[in-house]
Amino acid sequence: MLDYLIINARIIDPESESDFSGSLGIKAGKIDGVYRDYVALPSAKETIDAETGILVPGFIDIHAHSENNIPCAEKLLAMGVTTAVSGNCGYCAVDLRSFFAAFEKDGYPVNQLEQAGHSILRRMAGLFDINAPASVKQKEKMKLLASQAFSCGACGLSFGLEYDPGASPEEVLELSRVAADAGRFVSIHGRLRYLDDLDSLREALDIAETGAQVIYSHLVYMYNGNALKEAMRIITEYREKGANIWVDSGMYTAFATFAGSPCFEEKIFLNDDAETKKLRAASGKYTGEILDRDKYIEIRAKYPEDRLIYDPGKNDDVFTAYSLPDVMVSTDCMEYPAGQGHPQDAATYPYFFRTLVKEKRQLSLLEAVKRCTLLPAKAAGLETKGRLSCGMCADIAVLDWERLRENATFPGKGDPGAPPSGVEHVFVNGVLSIKNEKRIPGVLAGFCIKR
User: What is the pLDDT of residues 99-113, one digit of tens each?
Assistant: First the structure.
């Protein structure tokens, strides 16, 4: 007998590129059967009527900062995310053994993978000056620490070169070779030394020469306008030459990061009032407010860990970015107190489907599902996720297509953490975690996925 039988669904499997009406059975955490409408159905302990809703693999967020933060994971789950890849942009859990142990002991709303973060490796090697290059001894220490992280189960190596601009290209390549030798991917948030710095893009893509698989992080945060189009041309050029390059992007050009970051350095924002007015406080004392010069100075000096949102006001660049084949969807989700943050954490996936599929019809539904499921599964080496065939993990979302939409918005305009509408049912490892759009209390069915 099945644990669950989901009937009357429109089933979309990106691996087989199939789209049909049918039912799906779950047993012992796995997909036990996928049935066409004309097939006799087995019995189940519980039957769920999808009422012609769209049944897809659970979404895989290839770029998150959830790091075992329950509220962050709850926002992902509410969108249909069942697996998150964390440890991005150079930042990860410092003690990976304890990180994984706590995860395995306590459970989590979603599955999670963790990378080794380059910035954390630098600190652990005794390098605290973000503008300083590593010494030979420090590089050797970082390589040893990276190897130890991979032995613990880290799935990849992440760089956030915009946050550690002193890291030399040699340092990056040497560490990337360690990842390549361990069979781990490398994700990279490039350094952007100046506006539209395409040399930094080439530096990031050149990592593929080490033999490592490269994931270039949040494309539309890094480039816009003509520079974005040129970046896409360069990525295509590298791919055509055989480089193993993957790309992810969010659904907003407005990005969020901590106020003390080099992204918000004074030489830009104190010399141009128009630029300062593009900043909105995402957290802290001034949450939701557009900044003036005085508030900008105060936050940078007194509250460098507060998050700011920079909005260039060119969101059409998002649609340009997704015209590049195989761009994966990501949230950049991170920890915020209730009522604070960026809407990407709670809105990305429904916003993606509403705009690119429903309204603009830029992507087919099948292609859109693929970019949220199968592609990130392949990028992260997840052979039993992102697919709907028998034996695959029962990570599943059922969507009400007519009602599917985001409700989160920017602080100061509404609730950045508001859950979406239309995500009806979500299973994590065969455990029903959202039913009829309501979170089932106490269910922590996510697994720690080690490499």
Answer: 999 888 889 999 999
Domain contains 150? yes
Residue 224's CB: how many other CB atoms inside 10 A?
A: 23
Q: How far is CA 344 from CA 280, 282, 305, 320, 332, in A?
A: 15, 12, 19, 18, 7
Return the pLDDT at 192.
Answer: 83
Helix axes 136-152, 96-106, angle to 10 degrees: 20
Which residues constitute the domain of residue 282? 255-311
- Regarding whether 188 and 319 lie in a shared domain, the answer is yes
The token duo for 285 is: 């004392």
Question: What is the value of pTM for the model shown?
Answer: 0.97
pLDDT of residue 134: 97
Distance from first CA to last CA of the chain, Å, rounded?
A: 33
CATH number at residue 340: 3.20.20.140
